[in-house]
Amino acid sequence: MSSRLLRRILLCLALFSMTLPVFFCNTPGAQSDDGNVPETSPWRNVYDTSVHYVGMQTCRGCHESIYQTFIQTGMGQSFGFASQEKSAADFTPGHALVYDSALDYYYKPYWTNDSFYIMEFRVEDGDTVHKRIQRVDYIVGSGQHTNSHIFSTNGYLYQAPITFYTQKHRWDLAPGFEKGASTRFQRLIQIECMSCHNGYPDFVSNSENKFNLLKTGIDCERCHGPGSLHVLERQTKPLVDTSKGPDYSIVNPRRLSTELQNNVCQRCHLQGITVLNDGKTFFDFHPGMKLSEVMNVFMPEYEGAQDKMIMASHVERMKKSQCFIQSGKMSCITCHNPHVSVKFTPRMQFINACQSCHSGASGQHQCTESAAVRTTKNNDCVTCHMPHNGSIDIPHVAVTDHFIRKRPMADSERSKITAFLGMKCFNNDKPDAITMARSYMEFYERYAPSKELLDSAILYLGRQSDDEAKKKQNRDYIRACFLLKDYQKVVLYAGVLQPEVVNDAWTAYRIGEAYYQIQKPDSALAWYQRATEIWKYSLDFQNKYGICLLALNRTPDALKVFQFVISENPNHISANTNLGFIYMQQGNNAMSYDYLMKADALDPDYEQNLINLAVWYHNNQKPQLAHKSLEHLLKRHPGNEQAKAMLIDLERN
After folding, report:
1. What gap in Å lies between CA 256 and CA 459, rounded to an integer?
2. Residue 371 confidence (pLDDT)
């Protein structure tokens, strides 16, 4: 094969890129306000934007005893630096090894002094042919159920591919990394994840996953709201006698209505498909608000799924219970004291909560079970009526099922899912049509890429008024058509827009990608650029912007973009590949090889980099290595037609 032909193929392939993963969350805070007037509250730290967070150590100054018990709870232990003290994992040789059979990688977690590492490696014919070592910076989880692992690269957070499951005392692939779905070291930890698994961080708002500062553990103000007003008044005004009435300078959840109490907990213990309201971010909910003022949380409803549950679905399950439906007063803190760990809570506290409603006038239980059977269960209501149940989203974990039933299903009675019924919102009985449409699109992107979901989304979008459609800048139709890969229609909807009036980075990206996919990079460029203006530190958007510049032969500009990406994250695989390509085109073989080999060390199966390496080897009279690179590519990606054609040409020559 001639060098000219190889370079022509390479240029075509280097500019080709699949669309970015579509499971990212909807853009927080990028749209105009929906015009709703906020509700008022007697609690003065709820809506007053001048009230700010002061941190748990400030709270500790007056509430030391509560602080000491709270930091032992699952919330207090939710997030911490990677240390041997924090880790609940077993690192002995018989336990600390995970094999991903789908992608053919081994993972070994280990400590070197006080530093925690995960080594990824591959073995072929008895030899180690790939090894990547990644230091772990943070451990997520109290260790009651799991320890997951996060690493930081210049503030950009990513999840490591393995998790320790404490109940089964075993290492395995992280949730969502099974069955060939592993993204290895590239899963972004975005603000939606971090805002529930930890205290509010200092987040770089024009990014997807960059953080300036992380706290260690959920803190007091997540349940009580920002505390600066309370601190100021306690320093400058007489104490409030709370035995006689509330101190309205800071929320006390026990004094909220039942609905608002549950809304505090629902913020994180109602896990599902979260749809932010326009103009809202994941930071905007304060205790004392209705959660629906900021977001709506949906769950898919299935026929035959009554016994199926996900890990953090406590509130959704509780709301199915007759105890909740009939009482009108049941909240999470009916049973739980958030300041005390479940591990240290007397069992009688939970039993007494049941008996507070389920006792007759004589004080006897209204339980139909025989006394003999109740005795074997120590008269423990929870054991029978709220048994542990497996989680369908987190393997190797069983948690208390908060769907309280007279007779929970036995294993032999468990049903099979037979039909998808639709999306149901669990914190708002009447979500609007646009919000419903977004729930279907979110579910499609994250979990179930079924066209029927997009059909439902478009059906709901058709119910919005023309004014609503205009107000949203067509972004929902653009999103739906983009997911359908109907790029011509995306371009049609975008035709009435100018990049500078679009304030949503994902909308700008989708329009740019649609133009690019219909081979109009000149029209795509301004939209990619707009996406990077809104989210400067979205490195994937920057990378796509650079690829578009390359397609327009603006190589010096593309070089600057890829260098920016690498300066932010030296381990960005595609940017390393693209830099290797540019330097190869410029005849700088040494720098080209360095970048290509860096990408290869990060991901030995990355298709574009393997093709680039094959061209580099061919250009530098190393045909055997070029052949080996293409053979490896086809072993891992047997459908790559370009590699097949290049291999045939190499064999002819």
Report:
1. 38
2. 81
Q: What is the enclosing helix (H) or strand (E) of 489?
A: helix 487-494
Residue 308 contacts residue 302 (beta carbons within 8 Å): yes
Cα-flanking dihedrals φ and ψ of residue 476, to 5°?
-75, -40
- State the pLDDT at residue 11: 40
Q: Look at residue 317 and give its three-state secondary structure.
A: helix
Average pLDDT (619-641) is 96
Phi, psi of 599 (to 5 degrees): -65, -40
Neighbouring CB atoms inside 10 A of 589's CB total 13
> How many whole angstroms separate alpha carbon 472 and alpha carbon 227?
35
Position 4 confidence tier, pLDDT thresholds 50, 70, 90: very low
- Report the distance separating Cα 267 and Cα 195, nearest Å: 10
Residue 35: name the closest of 248, 287, 293 by CA. Answer: 293
Chain Cα centroid distance, residue 112: 29
- Quick check: 465 pLDDT over 70? no
Residue with token string 């609503």:
468
Residue 588 corresponds to which tokens in the numbers above?
């700088």
262/45 Cα distance (integer angstroms)? 18
The domain over range 3-27+478-652 is classified in CATH as 1.25.40.10:
yes
Residue 270 half-sphere exposure toward CB, CA atoms < 13 A: 28
Q: Three-class SS of residue 339?
A: coil
Q: Where in the chain is the domain with CATH 1.25.40.10?
A: 3-27+478-652
pTM of the model: 0.90
Q: Read out DSSP for 260-274?
A: HHHHHHHHHHS-SEE
pLDDT digits (tens, 9 = 90+) for 216-249: 999 999 999 999 999 999 999 999 999 999 999 9
Of 378, 398, 375, 396, give the one whose Cα is nearest residue 388. Answer: 398
- At residue 292, does pLDDT exceed 60? yes
Determine contact, residues 385/402, Cβ cutoff 8 Å.
Answer: no
* Residue 40 burial (10 A CB sphere; 0-12, 13-18, 19+): exposed
